Amino acid sequence: MRIVSRRFFRLIILFFVALTLLFSLGGVAIPLARPIPVEAQTVSTCLNRVNIPTSDLHWAYVPEIADQLHTEEEYYYLAGQLIANGVVDAGTCPSSGLMSSGYANACGMSVARPTVIVVQNLLNDPILQAYEDVGVPPVILKLLIGTESQFWPSAVSSTHYGFGHLTNIGIRNALQWNSDLYSQVCPSGSDCASSYSLADQILASLVDTCPACEYGIDTAKASRSVNILAESLLGYCSQTEQLVYNATGWYSGYAVDYATIWKLTLMDYNAGSQCVYNTLKATFAYTRGPMRWSDISAHVSGDLCIRGWNYANTITAKYFDFPPTEN
Predict the structure, then answer these.
(1) Quick check: helix, strand or coil at residue 315?
(2) Is the pLDDT of residue 20 over 70?
(3) Most buried among 38, 41, 104, 280, using CB within 10 Å?
(4) What does DSSP say about strands 160-161 and 155-156: parallel, antiparallel, or unpaired?
């Protein structure tokens, strides 16, 4: 019994010596499959402008003044609308400056170009103000408008409306995810998110063309429309945050960075939530951790999703030469 007791005592001493050495050397790192956040995300990833890669600052950068958003694109659809609506006289051009598609021909563009440049920059102040009020990156908002409507806020085929070519299902989706948007555009006590007719009324209010107005656009209404479009995009970003969580089980701030959540938002806006969810799920199965845009890009599949991915890349491609000096 005495021998057993001594052996036991020695084992106890050896155990504590080993434990002391372990802590003195800094312990042992036990690898985990992934970090497990123990607290809920408190700041929206859509608004948390931290750790922005330098390679994305050309679009994530916030200009100090609206004039820094100046563009001089030759928008042939916009030129055609300015000619067709009598804002620009291209009577000296073949076919009065218009092609059968409604776009300007080369001569029409030549005549309309000065006005095209003015019109595409009418929204620079409202776009920058929308960043202050809503938080949507101003370059995304400007280039999305250029891609969707070429700055002509009409109704196209009675399905796409305003500067952002929002659709009925699109505005209703945004309303579900942004309570501020809901309070701005929905009559008290109504359910705009499920009402097709009420959504149509909201969309109709985004048509800001005006035959009697300078440049054919009601600029006072246009400022409101830019704000509504920004709120709609923020709604899509909130939905995208939820899609990240649904696909990964991680809060979005742990899974993707600011630049990536906005690229995913553009993909959602163009191609829909199912594409984003499927892509995220496939990507996370590979990374088992935080996802970069390059990781996500490698797991996009299907024509619709590839279209949405291309859309996001087009809008966030380098356009402005902003200095990457701050977040």
Answers:
(1) helix
(2) no
(3) 104
(4) antiparallel
Residue 155 shares a structural domain with residue 88: no
Could you tell me if residue 9 is inside a domain? no
Evaluate the CA torsion angle 287, 308, 134, 182 in order and state its sign: negative
The residues, any chain, with a CB within 8 Å of residue 185's CB and separated by 6 or more, are: 175, 192, 202, 205, 228
Beta strands in the chain (DSSP E): 155-156, 160-161
Same domain, 281 and 263: yes
CATH number where 209 lies: 1.10.530
3-state secondary structure of 299: coil
Query: Stretch 221-243: mean pLDDT, rounded?
Result: 98
Lookup: tokens for 207: 């048509």
Q: Is 128 found in the same domain as 106?
A: no
Q: Which of 158, 170, 85, 166 is nearest to 119 (CA)?
A: 85
What's the number of domains the chain is made of?
A: 2
Has residue 30 been placed in a domain? Answer: no
Name the helix (H) or strand (E) containing 267: helix 258-271
4-29 average pLDDT score: 42
Domain extent, residue 95, equals 72-120
Q: Are residues 80 and 59 in the same domain?
A: no
pLDDT digits (tens, 9 = 90+) for 41-78: 678 999 999 989 999 999 999 999 999 999 999 999 99
User: pLDDT grade, residue 324 (50/70/90)?
Assistant: low
